[in-house]
Amino acid sequence: MELCLQLETFLRSLNSLQAVVKPQKKAVGEAALQSVESVSRQTLDKAFDKAWVCQQVLDLQSQFQAIVVAIEAAGVDPSVDSPVDLSMEPRLRSYQTEAYRWLRLLSVESMRLRTARAPETISQGRSQLETYLNQLQPFVEAIASEICPTVS
User: Fold this and answer.
1) Which of 40, 55, 75, 76 has its CA 20 to 30 Å from the CA of residue 112?
2) pTM of the predicted structure, to 2 decimals
3) What is the pLDDT of residues 86-95, one digit of tens each?
4) Is residue 135 part of a domain?
5) Is the sign of the CA dihedral 76, 81, 86, 90 positive or negative?
């Protein structure tokens, strides 16, 4: 099923972006924690490719749009052996709306992050992106479980 493959690909892309965005924290002694954390944040923030993250968010948006179009097409044409039936349409619409909302917030935050220069601003942006990605994931997983019970 092409729709299921699209959902699997989207979830893999989402997971890889989450792994990159998630700030890395190292366990060290309490006394040295602040200085090491400050230095490691600055190092991570310099190595953090903001343009790549921005592009990944745009890719997620286009992948999600393709998924929505595929869901619409599957629901519209009853002659096609479709994983989408009319009884799940209201739930799918609700999940799609929420997922789309989190994707828009991700887009705005990734654009803010792209222009950020200060390490604190970059850290805040990464944290916000991580939050948005974590909020987006359950809605996409819900769509996937409705359409393709073997995906998630």
Assistant:
1) 40
2) 0.79
3) 678 888 999 9
4) yes
5) negative
